[in-house]
Write a structure and sequence with these properties.
4% helix, 15 strands, single chain, Porin
Length: 273
């Protein structure tokens, strides 16, 4: 389970394995175990492949902390049995991987650890709320680097029963705080985003996202506004028109218009939940 490969159309050839892992369920104690190369369980979107995102690109804080592809490393993950408390369900995940993400660890290859807690609440037959928190720690002993990262996320979804294909509303937000210690010097970074999406019909989705990074090493405080319109021509094909406005303080803002076409055929389509 979980195999995906990507290629670079601008490169000189070659194929890169994005994910290749096995996942065991039904273990004693209702634990789950994953082993291989995989997208790690941090925040709301790192597990998503790029073609499945609500926008063309990932939120600005994620690309700065993890790079364009996200946090993908090789190792093992243990999912603990879910715990039900009243109307909520709690989940905890622990992961141990090689610290190979260059943006976060400088391709050190040493061990990194990740812990994630998630609480899911059914508010009504039409709505749910989720809150999560993640912590990451890793080292690059060769470069004398220690990296620590904390993340908090919230998500809300409303979709009328029997009409979720025609009408739905999503609200998602994340906040990140990171520290790097290099040769006794501490570099910090902070970032957050807020995202809204409204499905107006089976084919039409309106979206808006606001990103903000601040105190991020030697980069200026920057905010980005990203409205978008997505039109599903069919179950397998969608087109997206997106506008990006990026404003580093105190510089002049940059304007970008993007048109995206995505088609997907096969059983491994991403579920939005």
């Amino acid at each position: 389970e979980g195999e995906e490969a990507t290629g670079d159309p601008h490169g000189h050839g070659g194929v890169e394995i994005e994910e290749a892992y096995v996942y065991w369920v039904g273990l004693p104690g209702a634990f789950g175990l994953k082993a291989g190369k995989f997208r790690q369980e941090i925040g709301l979107y790192n597990r998503w492949h790029t073609h499945a995102l609500w926008e063309v690109d990932r939120p600005l804080p994620l690309t700065l902390f993890f790079g364009e592809d996200g946090l993908i490393q090789t190792g093992a993950a243990l999912t603990f049995p879910s715990l039900a408390l009243g109307p909520s369900t709690q989940t905890f995940i622990f992961e141990g991987t090689s610290a190979s993400n260059s943006a976060l660890f400088g391709e050190g290859g040493d061990i990194s650890i990740l812990g994630r807690f998630r609480s899911f609440w059914d508010l009504s037959p039409a709505a749910y709320f989720q809150v999560g928190a993640t912590g990451v720690y890793g080292e690059n002993k060769e470069a004398g680097l220690e990296s620590r990262l904390a993340e908090i996320d919230v998500a809300f979804r409303w979709a009328p029963p029997n009409r979720s294909l025609y009408q739905a509303f999503h609200l998602k937000a994340e906040w990140y705080y990171g520290e790097k210690e290099v040769a006794g010097q501490t570099e910090i970074g902070r970032g957050a985003y807020l995202q809204l999406n409204y499905r107006a019909s089976r084919r039409l989705i309106f979206g808006a996202r606001g990103d903000y990074i601040y105190d991020f090493e030697d980069l200026p405080d920057t905010y980005q506004v990203v409205p978008s319109i997505t039109w599903w021509q069919s179950e397998w094909l969608y087109l997206r028109l997106q506008y990006n406005y990026v404003k580093p303080k105190p510089e002049t803002g940059n304007h970008t218009v993007l048109l995206q076409v995505v088609w997907a055929i096969g059983p491994h389509k991403h579920e939005n939940y």
